[in-house]
Design brief:
Belongs to the SbcD family. The protein has 387 residues and is an alpha/beta fold. Helix content is 31%, strand content 23%. It has three domains: 2-263, Metallo-dependent phosphatases (Purple Acid Phosphatase, chain A, domain 2), CATH 3.60.21; 270-340; 345-386. The longest helix is centred in the C-terminal third of the chain and has 24 residues, at 363-386.
């Protein structure tokens, strides 16, 4: 059985205020063409269909167009909700849409109820595990402590129990939206940390033939049977070296996996450049970047006048400008943003406590801070679900 694994469409998302809807429409065209040209049997979409819980109308129209075109091809599609989606909104009408071969899986309680499809070698059970927010689903899965590994492990126990009741030789595919240990993140994924922990081990997917993952935006192979497709478009400059693609996966009669990457259209290349303003304006080696979306970091000791306007003269598609002035010894003076980059909210808060009080928080105070951050994040999630 031939599968096309994709995820993280983020329909409606902009790139530094530049609309990507045309690029997203081009991706849907490419997706449909690939399904037809490669004789795909099943399309898998592993979450984050939309970029936010209440997407703009134009994004909904792109999604609607994709559903109609996939249904017209007669190729089944299995799709789950991600942490950016409103599971309830995405799942509206799932029963009716399922009759057209578009199988939306957004309810955590139904994660062990597969879509069963067949080929000449027998049945393949497709289990859709939507994004499982630990604080919201811990009671459903009866786990003692809310955490990603606990709830995803409990969901996979249900999957394995259902699979054990099926005819011998039934192959299995799981769609999941999570941060799996070993995956490489980028700057454009939303933080899903709970209690200081956000990742789950790949071993949680033991017992299934293929785990089609979503959430991380870079295409990655964690093992032969566990893969991220990544996002079809770049959503941050940290993805400038990503090769955006989908996985074309052949699932053999005994669960064997053969996979190849299908490249996605690139609307415009990304480039990060750094140096003094006049050097950036004159350096001939930067000519290949003149048609790119550009993030420029100026290193002038004194901020030059009208830097964005001047840089736009050479780089008309520049989108981001940062300043990192060099000291006399040639080293950067770190900006506030640079000092915070890559740091968790908990670390920033602890440093603030130390700055104000003269001593950092003790273990009990750290626990209070972490609980507060978890409560705020869960509260935001609940508000999105309710909207």
């Amino acid at each position: 059985m031939r599968l096309l694994h994709t995820s993280d469409w983020h329909l409606g998302r902009a790139f530094h205020r530049v609309s990507l809807l045309d690029a997203q429409r081009a991706f849907i065209d490419h997706l449909v063409d690939t399904v037809r040209a490669e004789q795909v049997d099943v399309v898998l979409v592993s979450g984050d269909v939309y970029d936010r819980a209440v997407p703009p109308l134009a994004a909904v129209e792109v999604f609607d167009d994709a559903l109609h075109r996939l249904a017209e091809l007669g190729v089944p599609t299995v799709m789950i909700s991600g942490n950016h989606d409103s599971a309830r909104r995405l799942g509206v009408g799932a029963g009716l849409i399922g009759r057209a071969g578009i199988h939306l899986r957004t309810a955590p309680a139904a994660c062990h109820e597969p879509v069963v499809l067949s080929d000449e070698h027998g049945d393949v059970a497709f289990y859709g595990l939507p994004y499982l927010e630990p604080a919201l689903v811990k009671d459903e899965f009866k786990v003692k402590k809310a955490g990603h590994e606990a709830v995803l492990g409990a969901a996979m126990d249900r999957v394995r129990a259902d699979l054990a009741e099926r005819p011998p030789g039934t192959r299995s595919v799981v769609l999941a939206h999570a941060f799996v240990t070993g995956g490489e993140p980028s700057d454009s994924e939303r933080d899903i940390t709970v209690g200081g922990v956000e990742s789950v081990p790949a071993a949680v997917f033991h017992g299934v033939d293929y785990a089609a993952l979503g959430h991380l935006h870079g295409c990655q192979t964690l093992s032969e049977h566990v893969r991220y497709s990544g996002s079809p478009l770049a959503y941050s400059f940290s993805e400038q070296h990503h090769r955006k693609s989908m996985w074309l996966v052949d699932l053999g009669p005994g669960g064997e996996i053969a996979a190849e990457r299908i490249d996605c259209p690139v609307p415009r290349r990304l480039a990060r450049i750094e140096g003094e303003r006049e050097v950036l304006l004159a350096d001939p080696e930067l000519e290949p970047y003149e048609d790119c979306w550009v993030e420029a970091t100026l290193t002038d000791a004194v901020r030059p006048p009208e830097p964005m306007a001047r840089l736009c003269e050479r780089f008309p598609h520049i989108l981001s400008l940062a300043f990192a002035p060099r000291r006399a010894d040639g080293h950067h003076v770190d900006s506030y943003a640079e000092r915070l980059k890559g740091r968790e909210d908990q670390e920033i808060a602890e440093d603030f406590v130390a700055h104000v009080r003269g001593a950092g928080p003790d273990e009990a105070e750290r626990a209070v801070l972490q609980a507060a951050f978890d409560d705020v994040r869960v509260s935001d999630m609940v508000k999105e679900v309710a909207r």
